[in-house]
Amino acid sequence: MKMDVWVKRHQSYGAADMTTLEPINNASHGRRSQGDRSRVMRDRLVTAAIVCIETHGYAGASVSRIVQQAGVSRGAYLHHFRAKHLIFKAVALRLVGDVFRRLGDMEPNQGSTAEDLRVVLHTIWDAVVTGPEGRVFAELMLAARTDEVVAQHLRRPAFRALRLFGWGAQRRIPIAKTSPLTSSDVVRLAQWTLRGMALDTALSLDPKFFHRQIDLFVDMLAPHLPSASSNGG
Amino acid sequence: MKMDVWVKRHQSYGAADMTTLEPINNASHGRRSQGDRSRVMRDRLVTAAIVCIETHGYAGASVSRIVQQAGVSRGAYLHHFRAKHLIFKAVALRLVGDVFRRLGDMEPNQGSTAEDLRVVLHTIWDAVVTGPEGRVFAELMLAARTDEVVAQHLRRPAFRALRLFGWGAQRRIPIAKTSPLTSSDVVRLAQWTLRGMALDTALSLDPKFFHRQIDLFVDMLAPHLPSASSNGG
DNA sequence: TATTATACAGTATGATCATACTGTTTTTAT
DNA sequence: ATAAAAACAGTATGATCATACTGTATAATA
Hints:
Two copies of one chain form a homodimer. By secondary structure, the first copy, chain A, is an all-alpha fold.
């Protein structure tokens, strides 16, 4: 009797409550360990939170919306995240991991020229900055300015990101010896420029406009790159 | 009898309810026109909204907080702003006006060199980007990404800002003739870089760090400036 | 001066928020 | 197989939200 009720509930996840995620299907997995159950549910909730932050903003990512997006109950949420800020911490960690995984995938050509850098920046713009990771990351960074708890959770991942970007840059982006800039400086400035640009995407300008601006940034940088500079090394 | 009650209420604004703004004092003004009353009250509410956005974020700037910050009642608020988004529109217009007034005040030296540009950027960073205007503007821009109404209200002021910045730049920031960049390009990129940097201020890095980064940006730009470039005009 | 419109005060309402709480199902341990 | 623990479902609660609403004070108008 009661079992029938539960089955009906579970089926409803795939129909009414769920929007994007796959419905929970225990039968296909068979017997799952508690560790698996936990991990899957946590991932599910974090993914839903990211979707909610992206579509409704940091403050608009309410528990109600998150659990509805995830297709689970409030109880499941509260079991894994006793307080609201804890799920944002998990979101921050996931974001950093995703970004690095994605950047690691796109290994640029060695011996980069201005053209290679241009391609990399356009790709990062499309795939990271204006994508879900970048949008959600910007939401969290801005929230951190008025919410000290969020700031504390973001500090470590952000520093780690800056460091790793710097290391990656030294291998991939050679700079002319005569330039006062280092590879790390260049990626840091490029990162900030792209992030600043991203704020203006809300104005719904022509996407081509932003790509032209990226080209201009590379033009600005060109004298500091080895092959394009007349006085470079 | 009733008059006494009102006097007590008005006095209380200066003591309990008010935090930053001056208390309302009808006696000193004598008889005020309705236009004046309206304008003063609107300014008062907009200023309070800006303070609330700066300290609590866009979503945290609730009507309760705004009217408490302004030291007025909810009725006054609702009389002037029938819906929440209308006060944000007023805030956006005020911000743009304030920024241009402030930028107009600091007229840089003519015949700008890299050093002059450096000074200008440091000043803009301190006075605008990391100041209340910049912080609140960033909040609104990010809110616009998930709130179409805010985006509509922000579009005109933002475009106007971009245009005016471009015009001001052409007069003030000469670019080497050999450079593919224009003065407008440079200020646009500089603006984005500073705004991107501003997001990282939530990490509470050393303020000197950001100023060093501004110097690096100017270094990056140096080959495109007339006096600092060996091949400049 | 009397009337009317506007400005403002203060409370009420329904929705939504984060979270607490109880009960059921599923896994683990014995 | 059975007891204990963990995962999860669903509802309840008190706070806060935007806004509606009624009443009073002040300015404009006659």
